[in-house]
Design a protein that fits this description.
- It is found in: Cell membrane.
- One of its GO terms (molecular function) is ATP binding.
- One of its GO terms (cellular component) is plasma membrane.
- Belongs to the ABC transporter superfamily.
- It is a single chain.
- About 30% of the residues lie in helices and about 30% in strands.
- The chain is built from eleven helices and 15 strands.
- It is an alpha/beta fold.
- The radius of gyration is 23 Å and the shape is globular.
- α4 runs parallel beside α6 and α5 packs across α6.
């Protein structure tokens, strides 16, 4: 069994059996999904096209109502497209649904989908059994340990907190050992320590070749796990970029924040008065060139420079800018 917080033991959970690396893990072509309610037609997804290679971790981002959940349900084979094609390791989600489901497991969390009168151990054993894969006790114990439920394995789920139920959903997903793990808000309801622990488990799976697709409003999940970001806006893909390039949409690479004893008249600095009478200024810079940083600091020395920090671009600011700007987006 692995040590707490170190992820999943390879020998205990088993090898991740990716299909041929020449076949995309996910291949989506001109996907449309419409819904009809009270005589009106609503387009949730329009002309969505992308591929995900095996072993990549992809974050699907967007504001509420953008189409993320609809896309996730189609990838999970829970919802059919109106038109277009979706293949999971070459298996079409409409024509070969059962085959596609062998390659992807979806974890949507929430209070539903678990048996409250059963223990976590019994839930995990049951869901493995109905997939025709009875798991040995060491493997069950390793999975529960990897999500921090080893000490609560034999408690009824009805006694679990929301966060504990979320971790059990993740455990059920891990027990399937499918090559693609689709996660919807994986750390919702978790405290910071358990969220970090779960991200460590997912990072270990990623390092072993698991293809991970996640939607999350917790951008720490995205920053620590994703190789790539697909931003959906009003049902269409607006950006499809590697994580580093997506972060550049913040408009800067690094931010300098300095505390001064006296105000500066430099117009490019944002001024924030401090309660102790000092002034905090912020300057956004577009590169990491040391000469530029030095020049900025030299400008601040006459103002009584107390201290300064340099921080990288904010994923949150990149996301906000990407949603609100009016360009046509970008591709990798």
């Amino acid at each position: 069994m692995t040590e707490a917080g170190t992820g999943v033991g390879k020998s205990e959970i088993g090898e991740i059996s990716n299909a041929s690396p020449a076949v995309p893990a996910v291949d989506v072509r001109h996907l449309y999904r419409t819904f009809r309610t009270t005589g009106k037609e609503f387009t949730a997804l329009a002309d969505v096209t992308f591929t995900i290679p095996p072993g990549e971790a992809t974050a699907i981002l967007g504001v509420n109502g953008a189409g993320k959940t609809t896309l996730s349900k189609i990838l999970a084979t829970w919802l059919y497209p109106t038109s277009g094609t979706v293949n999971i390791f070459g298996a079409n989600v409409v024509m070969a649904t059962a085959h596609a489901r062998q390659h992807i497991v979806a974890v949507f969390g929430g209070d539903r989908g678990l048996y409250p009168m059963l223990t976590a151990w019994e839930n995990l054993s049951y869901f493995a059994a109905i997939r025709g894969a009875a798991l040995p006790k060491p493997q069950l114990a390793s999975i529960l340990d990897s999500v921090g439920l080893a000490d609560a394995a034999h408690r009824r789920v009805e006694e679990y907190s929301k966060g504990m139920k979320q971790r059990l959903h993740i455990a059920v997903g891990l027990s399937a050992n499918a090559p693609i793990l689709l996660l919807d808000e994986p750390t919702v309801g978790l405290d910071p320590i358990e969220a970090a622990r779960l991200r460590g488990t997912l990072a270990e799976l990623k390092n072993r070749g698991k293809t991970i697709i996640l939607t999350s409003h917790n951008l720490t999940d995205v920053e620590e796990l994703a190789d790539r970001v697909i931003l959906i806006h009003t049902g269409r893909i607006k950006y499809d970029l590697p994580l580093a390039r997506f972060k550049e949409l913040a408009g800067y690479r690094y931010r300098i924040t300095a505390t001064l004893q006296h105000p500066t008249t430099e117009p490019e600095f944002e001024h924030h008065p401090n309660v102790d009478g000092t002034v905090r200024v912020t300057r956004l810079i577009a590169s990491d060139e040391q000469t530029l940083i030095t020049r900025i600091l030299e400008q601040l020395q006459p103002c009584g420079l107390v201290d300064f920090t340099i921080s990288p671009a904010s994923l949150e600011e990149a996301f906000t800018n990407a949603v609100h700007n009016n360009d046509d987006g970008g591709a990798a």
